Amino acid sequence: MTFHPGAFRAIGSAMAGAIRPQPPVPFDAWLPKNIVLVDGPRKGELWAPEDAPYLVEIAQCLSQEHPCNEVTVRKSQQTGVSILALAWMLYLTENAPDNMMYAVPSIDMLQDINSGKLQPLIDAWAKKTEKTVIFPDVSRSGRGSTIYEKRFSGGSIYLANANVVTDLSGKTTRYGVKDEVSKWQMLPNGADPENLFFGRFTAFRRQKTFKIFGLSTPELDSGDALGDGPGHCRIDRDFRRSDQRFWHIRCPECGIEQVQRDAYLLIDKKHPHKTVLQCLQCEHHISEMERVPAVRQGRYIPTLSGPDRHPGFHVDAFMSLMMSYEAIAEDKISYEAKGEAGAKDYHNLVLALPYQMKGNAPDHQRLMERRESYPAGTIPAGGLILVSGADVQSYGIYCEVVAFGEDRQSWNVCAEFLEGATDNPQAGAWLLLEEFTEQDFPDAFGVLRKIEARGVDSGYRTNQVLEWCRRHSNSYAVKGMPGRGVPAISPPTRKSVTKRGKRKRYGSAMTWPVGTWSLKAELYGNLHKTGLRSGEACDPPGYCHFHGDLGEEYFQQLTAEYFTQKLTKGKLHEEWALRREHNHFLDCRIYAMAMAEHLGLSRLTKSQWAALRARYEPENVPDLLSPASVVVAAATPAEVATAPEPTSSKKPGSSWADKWKKRK
Fold first, then answer.
1. Farthest-apart Cα atoms in the chain, separation
2. pLDDT classification of 294: cutoffs 50, 70, 90
3. Smallest Cα–Cα separation from 119: which of 102, 98, 143, 105?
4. What does the alpha-carbon distance between residue 132 and residue 490 come to, in Å, rounded to a whole number?
5. In the predicted model, what is the mean pLDDT of residues 279-286?
6. Residues 397-423: what's their mean pLDDT?
7. For every residue of 595-624, which 3-state class applies, written as one string?
8. By the 8 A CB rule, do 377 and 341 touch?
9. What is residue 140's predicted lDDT score, i.e. its pLDDT?
């Protein structure tokens, strides 16, 4: 029997091709062919590198054959990095199946990721490529895929809550994702969740065949130069250990490569769409039209190098093609108007940088130098919300009246100490407080106004405070609540009871919880701001004004606390500590800020602010008795330009001079 030599060649080639190992597929080449976007403007379309060019190099580092064991991304919001992490799980499922762990900081976030992103991503991937790698749910007994585990041939994807010990124990994994790692907290037993997470990879550490992908928006900056201080942002700490790669673009004018920085952003507040970025060398104004192609043609440049440096990437809103200079400018203007909390959000969510709280108050003598010439007891122009805060002591009551404007600027109207006993709510200092807070305060337009809300501290003399507030309208018994994350003012709790021990439904005294942590952070952040008195072009949002009659004691009490962080038994404790014995006017200001929030300082719309201005700042409308200067000042330029020339009502020749000339 004979065979054609070509048949041997064909059969041999086919067999060689079947048994020859296929080269590993790089992650960046796998993405555009397999991942279908499940949200955003490109929903239902395949992932495209031109929409997020800054993700390509990150994907290359996450590829199966890349030698690194760790990849860090310090990112802003809505940059596509989270989708990249989920897609990496599917890539490994197909190309390097093994056990994987995807850890997030809460059970709610875990469920949202599974139902909102991971499972839809799996379904879209299977439909597009007709691949059934992930097994569907089999039963409720835990066999097969579940909400917390995705089983496939060769391993599983474990979805873990990083703030629960059991989720980070009893598993051996080769690949892992630390999502939103900056929000991971110390566990109740004092253990660090990152250490427990890293322990899942012990079996692969000797041969260094594991890979961990950490990503998160930053949080707080401890101020430590190396980033190793207690409480420092976790993702920033990892980024500082990396080679620190930043996305560089070329200036279309001079061609120099540079990183887009917030310091070079030139914002037109009246016309945000005209915002541009100034080149750091030639000072060319890079427009939005020039930015888009520059970002697409940009590249990462490492800042540091060394054998112990892993790939680390900084991804901010300036790199995102879903954002624009206009959108960044609008965010900055909006966030700045929210004080210290807004500044933190802008740094974290837009700039992808950790934020150092300006908790330490400025020097009280520097604040005294900023005193202004408006009279005490008068509401300056711009003060649309008038409130007061009071701090009760055994020997008297401290009280401050504050006016707030639309952009959160504040004016001290007056601050007084009302001396007297406070054990009887109908005598002593309470009568002085009633007289002081119920008086009429004139504003800059001569209109008499009353305080709209009075906050009185109920931490001391609780019964007397509750009774006094129950008897006086627009009075609120407030109680300071420590700790981060507590709202400025929360729903009240009823304190009065009937003879049977049940809470009164009507006529009951109520206590309003006040989140002092965030309010103090906002106040001290605003005190650091400089305005017209310091040579600036204008007073920034949140700027604090003080009249010239305030003494040194007031400023010492206003700056009597500082922010401190302590590591106790493995847990980080943050608190406001006293640097002086008396801080009563600081408490008064905090309670006044809470009252302003209660009246809508943060939630009033532009139309509502306009209504307040129309109510308290009436226009100077001229009438028949107004002098000419008022009429001209009130007239618009068009009215002045079209005003007719003054004419005489007399007929020609009717004057005495004309009659004298016509005499005979």
1. 155
2. very high
3. 102
4. 50
5. 93
6. 95
7. HHHHCCCCCCCHHHHHHHHHHHCCCCCCCC
8. no
9. 42
> Which of 95-99, 412-416, 462-466, 642-646 has the highest average model confidence (pLDDT)?
412-416
Q: Per-residue pLDDT averaged across 631-640, rounded?
A: 50
The conformation of residue 662, written as its DSSP 8-state character, comes to T
The one-character DSSP state at 52 is: -
Q: How far is residue 323's CA from residue 285's CA, in Å, rounded to a whole number? A: 18
Q: How far is CA 311 from CA 61, 244, 258, 259, in A?
A: 7, 7, 20, 18
166 phi-psi bin (left φ>0, alpha ψ -120 to 50, beta other): alpha
Rounded to the nearest 5 percent, the helix, strand and coil shares of the chain are 35, 20, 45
Nearest to 181 by CA among 193, 165, 169, 166: 193
Phi, psi dihedrals of residue 13, rounded to the nearest 5° = -65, -40
> Alpha-carbon dihedral of residues 211, 216, 220, 224, nearest 10 degrees?
30
Q: Closest Cα partner for 478 from 600, 594, 400, 582? A: 594
**pLDDT for res 640:** 42
Report the amino acid identity of residue 576: W
Q: What is the pLDDT of residues 443-482, one digit of tens each?
A: 988 889 999 999 999 989 898 999 899 899 999 999 999 8
- For 646, the token pair is 């003054």
Here the tokens at position 535 are 């040579």
Choose among 320, 48, 322, 82: nearest CA to 181. 82
Rounded Cα gap, residues 39 and 172, in angstroms: 32
**Partner residues linked to 656 by β-bridges:** none
